[in-house]
Design goal:
Elements: E1 29-33, E2 38-42, E3 45-50, E4 54-58, E5 61-68, E6 77-86, E7 90-99, E8 102-110, E9 124-127, E10 134-137, E11 140-142, E12 153-158, E13 162-166, E14 169-174, E15 177-182, E16 188-192, E17 201-210, E18 214-221, E19 226-232, E20 246-249, E21 254-258
Antiparallel strand pairs: 1-4, 2-3, 2-10, 4-5, 5-9, 6-7, 7-8, 8-9, 10-11, 12-15, 13-14, 13-21, 15-16, 16-20, 17-18, 18-19, 19-20
Length: about 260
């Protein structure tokens, strides 16, 4: 993400191309407010409902959402004996969430007595994203993990000629691609499916989810067999609507040339 991974200012390997230095440890924390209402549900019951949540940005880690204890349904939480220690935050206490017929063991945690350099963590609880049934950002259900407000996805049309070969076999040729720039990732070219030899590919069982782009389907080249060498977003989210019906390619045998 922008702040904590890659060349972000809070990453452990932040770039030297700056006219400032950050006075602090190599492993950095930033606790900043999230701008919208967030809800978490398990077994049909509301575990958390808050418009006062915070995002913890931590070097080399995806942001983690923290909810004020007052906005958590503590009657659904049972304290456990499980503990973990973080040298940057302190000792974490854990709770099991029980809602309806659902039980999520040790799915919530908090730093009740955080270390002196992170006192603001006190009074907040984090919930493991995948351990509850649903998350809502206002009234939009969200998947994967929270959208980082410092993360961008930009899709721009390019008239450059883009050619794709797999194991020296040409499979795509276009002057109508989109170049997608996503924070923390290399640029990707998305090619319209009309300019791809799609009959040479078969659908894969592999899928993935990006909270910024949506649900991806994968494609494998049939001959020579090359698994999961392309992907597409049939119903992309609003940040990536331009790449609907477009494929992108990657892999050790993929060669992409531009002109």
């Amino acid at each position: 993400m922008t702040l904590t991974l890659g060349s972000g200012p809070l990453a452990a390997g932040a770039p030297d191309t700056t006219n400032y230095t950050l006075d602090g440890p190599q492993h950095k924390l930033l606790f900043s407010s999230f701008p919208r209402r967030i809800r978490a549900l398990l077994g049909g019951e509301v575990v958390a409902d808050s418009d006062r949540t915070m995002l913890l940005h931590e070097s080399n880690i995806f942001p983690v959402l923290y909810v004020p204890i007052g906005d958590v349904s503590m009657d659904l939480l049972t304290r456990t004996d499980h503990r973990t220690h973080c040298p940057f935050k302190g000792d974490a206490s854990y709770w099991t969430i029980t809602a309806g017929d659902r039980v999520a063991e040790n799915a919530a945690w908090g730093y009740e007595t955080p270390i002196d350099t992170a006192p603001w963590l006190g009074g907040y609880i984090a919930i493991e994203w995948s351990r509850v049934d649903q998350w809502f950002d206002e009234d939009d259900e969200i998947f994967g993990h929270i959208r980082d407000p410092y993360h961008r996805v930009d899709a721009r049309p390019t008239s450059r000629r883009i050619q794709v070969s797999i194991s020296d076999n040409p499979v795509a040729d276009t002057t109508s691609a989109f170049v997608v720039s996503e924070t923390g990732f290399p640029n990707r070219y998305y090619i319209p499916d009309t300019d791809i030899e799609t009959d040479r590919f078969r659908g894969s069982e592999t899928t993935s989810h990006c909270p910024h782009k949506g649900d991806a389907l994968y494609w494998s080249l049939a001959n020579p067999e090359t698994l999961d060498v392309a992907w597409s977003y049939p119903a992309p989210l609003e940040e990536a609507t331009r790449v609907a019906r477009h494929w992108s390619f990657d892999g050790p045998t993929v060669e992409i040339s531009t002109a």
